[in-house]
Amino acid sequence: MQERSNESTAALSAVDKAFAILGVLSMSDGSGLGVTEIAKLSGVPKATAHRILKALVEIDVVYFTEADKKYGLGSTLLGIGLAALRQLNVPKLARPYLEELASQTLETATLSMRQGGMRTYVDQVPSTQEIKMTVPIGMSFPLYVGASSKAILSTFTREELDAYLDSVELSPLTEATPIDKDALRADVEEVKVLGYAVSWGERQRDAASVAAPVRGSDGKAFGSLSVSGPLQRFDRHGTRRLGHLVKETADKLSGEIGYRA
Question: What is the DSSP code string of 179-204?
C-alpha cells in the first residue's frame, strides 16, 4: 500500500514538472527556448528538464530544432487546446462569480461576450433591491458603448484599437456616449491602467456600471463582467471599491478559462 502511494506521488511530481515546463513554453514568443532557460524559468533541475523535454518531443507535444537547440510547443497540443476550447462553457463557469458579485454589491451582475466588433449580454444575476437595473439577455452593443465594452477594448493593442476605431462611426445612444475617438482612446488607456472601466449613463440614461475584462488564454478578452445600477447609487468613491472587486472577480474567472498573467 505504501509502495503504491510512493509511486503515485512520484508520478504526480513528474506531471507537475512537465506542466511547469509547458507553462514556460506557452509564455514564450514562439521562437523557442533552450533547456537552460527552460530549467531556470520553470524551477525544474536542468537534467530533469532535459529528460522530460526529450520525452515530450517523442510524442510531438514539444518540438526541438537541432540548428539552435531550442524547444517549443508541438502540434499535438494544438488539437488538445482546440478540443478543450470547444468543451469550455464560459457562461456556466461564470455563473458562481456573477452570483458572488450580485451578493457582495447588491447590484445586478452581468456577463458580456465579445462577438467581433460587438458584445452581447449572455447572463445576469439581478439585484435584489426594489429599484434596480437589468439588461436584455441576447442584446448586442458596439464596443465603444458602456463599461462592459470599454473593458473589452482595454485588451486591444494600440494597433488593434486604431483599426477598430477606423472601422466604426461613433453614434451616441445617450448624451453621455463617447463620440470623440481621441477621448475614447484616452479613456481606454485609463482602463488599461486601472484594470476596470466605468460608465456614467453611456449606454442607458440614469444607469451606471463598472466592468473588467474576462481574458482567454491568449490574453484577449472573451468578454467582461460588470455590475450596474441606478446612477444615484454610484459615486466616485464607491466605483473605485466596485472596480477593484469586479477586477478581482474577473481575474479569477479568466484564470479558470486559461489566462495566465
Answer: --HHHHHHHHHHHHHHS-EEEESSSS
